[in-house]
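Hey, I'm writing a tutorial for new members on how sequence and structure tokens pair up, and I'd like a real worked example in the thread rather than a made-up one. If someone can provide the structure for the chain below, I'll link this post from the tutorial.
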Amino acid sequence: MLDTTTTAPNINGLYIDGQWLQTSRRFDDLNPSDGSVWARVPEASAYETRQAIEAAERAFPKWSGLRFQKRADYMLKIAELIEKRASDFVAAAQFEGGGWYGKGVYETKAMPEIFKAAAAVCYAPVGEVLPSLHGKVSTAVRVPMGVIGVISPWNVPGILASRPFSFTMAMGNTIVLKPSEETPYMGGLFFAEIMEEAGIPPGVFNVITCSRESVAEVGDELVDNPSVKGIAFTGSTAVGRRIAAKCGAHLKKACIELGGKDSLIVLEDADMERATSAASFGAFMHQGQVCMSVEKVLVQEKVYDTFMQGFVARASNLKAGNVAHRSNVIGPLINDRQAAKVKRQLDDARAKGAKFPLGGGVSGRFVEPTILTHVTPDMEIWRDETFGPVAVVTPFRTDAEAIAMNNDTEYGLSSGIITQDEQRAMEIAQHLETGMCHVNCSTINDEAHAPFGGAKASGLGRYGGRWSLESFSETRWITLDRGQKPFPPVF
């Protein structure tokens, strides 16, 4: 089926203090499939960023003082409106983000769940009563921090923007969201339209957009401004390190979710249908442009040949091409830089002796679904994140060898284990240096109320449910003394 509605919605401007603000400059927002201009988007500077921060700061006292059930009502209204506007988001996912139609549908199913979970957090406990040496009523309570800056990525922008700001806003913080320059609408301005229709009070939620040329200026203002009390960042490890370092210098809270080099471990007793399906989905969903993508498949020697036969056959059925055709599951990479990076890794692997049972071709931004074998640790593709539709398959003999292979990278985001022996899987999982592990499932997993985040160079902190509450609130110790604590007589 061919989708013919490829035009962008009206871009109203930046969204600051409940108003749409035009700027003197705009930048091109491209369709990755054909390079055409999908939209013209407002270019913000440090000046507009400060305006958004000031609006959020003004809005904070009233928003944080709002009754919790009212904030929950707003979250449920947002969920309802996203469901209503699903077709608009799916079109943007295809023609702004270069994603398969089904990937856009998946995001529109997941986003409402995130806001429903955020509404539930409003009803969760916000503290505890502690024992006291002197009979005081001693409490530890969580309170919102103030203005939170959210910097969201381009690959799954609906989920990866709403997950950081939904819980954060529900608990009483105010938001300044800067989406990626690659997906400024679906990662930012779409949500501004939703917030306006939901009646979110002015200043509680603000969106600033900018081009790649202005991202350092805007990002620095958002991170360095003392009125911003915390930063939520999802993106590359290189940028995440710099942001985390800046936040550390300012003694500012940060929740940083970065890249991965995730492994799916297939044990000898694995259900091969489940194993090949988990590997195919994990490696090729959204062209492998997911932080949790399966980049390495580690297969026990006894079932290696059987797995390879099924995996190659399954991946061979995936069609690549312009996502205007819904049958094309493998769309373009987001930009030429990313395509060049993937090609460099493939060329390096080929030159050093890797084999290609499937794919390996790169044409512009389109990369064929690719499976590599005979990959060695001296190849870039073994340790460095690829972020393309590429899977390395390597045999192993023992569980200890599989664990070592999984951990042989600076990253530690997600992992998967396919086996019928759950006890064995749990023992392996305890030794994997990853923030998440999924038994008999793909590395790609996300539930709104669960703790999401990585270890090592894959990030710092956790998103989701009460873990977002921990990331973007402060703990206060408040006591009621009822005359029990004595002071020294000299005083």
